[in-house]
Amino acid sequence: MRARTRVLLAASVALLLGAIALPAQAAPAKPPQHSPVTCGSQDTPETGIAGDVTKADQDGSRAAKGYNCGLAVVGHNGFDGELSSSLAWSASCAYVQGRGGGVRVVDMSNPTRPAVVKTLPTGGSSENLHAVTTPERALLTAARGKAVVDVYDVRTCTNPVLLGTVNFINPSTGVGIPGGPAHNIEFNPDGTKLYGSFPVQVADISNLADPATWTVRDFSCQLASQFHILHKLVPPTTVNLCEHFTLPPMMAHEFEFNADGSRMYIGGQLDPFGDNYIHVVDVTVWPPKLISSAPGAGHGIRRATIGGKPYLLHSDETISPLTALSGLTGGALSRDSAGGLPAIPGLPPLGTLGQNLLANGCVPDLLTPNGGAAESHLTSIEDEAHPKTVSELELAINDPANCLAQVRSQVNSTVHYNTVDDPDDTTFAMLSMKNAGLRVWDIRNPAAPKEAAYFNPGQFTAANGTKSLDIVRMHTVYNKATGHIWLLSVSGGLWVLELEPQVRSGLGLAALPTSYPNGRPARPAAPSTANPAVAVRSVSLSALTSGYYCQL
Length: 552
Known about the structure:
By secondary structure, the protein is mainly beta. 10% of the residues lie in helices and 31% in strands. The chain contains 9 helices and 33 strands. The strands form 9 sheets. Strands 1-27-26-25-24 form a 5-stranded antiparallel sheet, with no helix packed on it. It is globular. The two termini are 28 Å apart.
């Protein structure tokens, strides 16, 4: 495994830590140049190395046909060209957050025709949507702002009912908190608590009938004091850091829990004091007790159970430092709605090259999140006191040896979120890898994962002729009963996919009825709705600050 250290972001850190010597480690196995997936005869496989959309395909008509191998399109809703940013689900409903706000309620009972039945007047941030379904309750949450979060009853999934609002603590002190306390929000398994980051907070919503009882507590400093270097260097008798700072501001991005909710798994990002860490936390006590910390990032973090043993599937992301630079202009910026880099007054256009310059395999991934292509990792937590990373799920396009191919195509194939088919009995992982699309990996052998299928919506063309590659970036849904995957892409909308028979067989899964036993082209017909225009909108400094953290 590669050492996964971070670029130190402040000179003072170097003075505190001094030189850090990294132990020598064996070079990782090279990923296969081309995907090892077995395609259906009607599929439209990639023409280049795994994860690439070649420049020739982009300049011609091939990229507009999309790419797939082992995954066939069953249904699709393009939302009339409106862009999308986040996906949650409960029962036979999907909840899709629009890029400009609002949450679409999508009836998925007919998977061939996903139908929007209403739009909720909530949801304004890109990563603030989550749902939980238990025998006692079914809940959806969406953020209306950096600290204000709505909670809906979705027991009738097509008719969400607003129960109340959680007001997280908007920190008045602290440093480096670009996302706000509701950048990510997530219920615990039984839906009695709602967590928000960053900083790390929890709301007790056990009494759904009375929102006045929904109390919020911040426990960032209580956790940080158990591991963070500043707390080790500054004795509490000298100064109480918890009275002055929330450090580290991003020790948790996404939340994950074990089945009974007694353990919380989180991971840091942009911590300016060395490596990011994943943390195993006991949340049955107050304040929550840190059980262990291990090098690794948790921008995306989900648990898996492989061969009866517990693992974490986790990843970093790669931000765009140039996007951060644009924040210095004071907010007088524009940014295209497909997620392009903001224009910086006084500088020539940076375009796609500038946006992706550091978010690729040309830069070693030991520099993530500031550079290099982020990849997913599997870490064993069988000994929860000593987590151990066992493998990396790497695409060929992100191999430094293929830098030239990436420079030519300018794809951004860094992972954003990852999900598994079943956290209690895991067969495969689903990785949302932006311009490389959805990549399905067989992880039954956690030490040697291999790619099993992929789907990439490809390229869309706006009315003005501007071409852009679609982006797959959020969590996906797998329905064991039907074998369907629900996938959201920024430009293409909501896709219903099925694992083709040869993929199910290769994964050791039982056969299921299939609509397309020989596969199907990735874009079997013209999109059901108009292709999105690439609009230009103004972006505030506060929005850009959040953009520094998450490259959208």
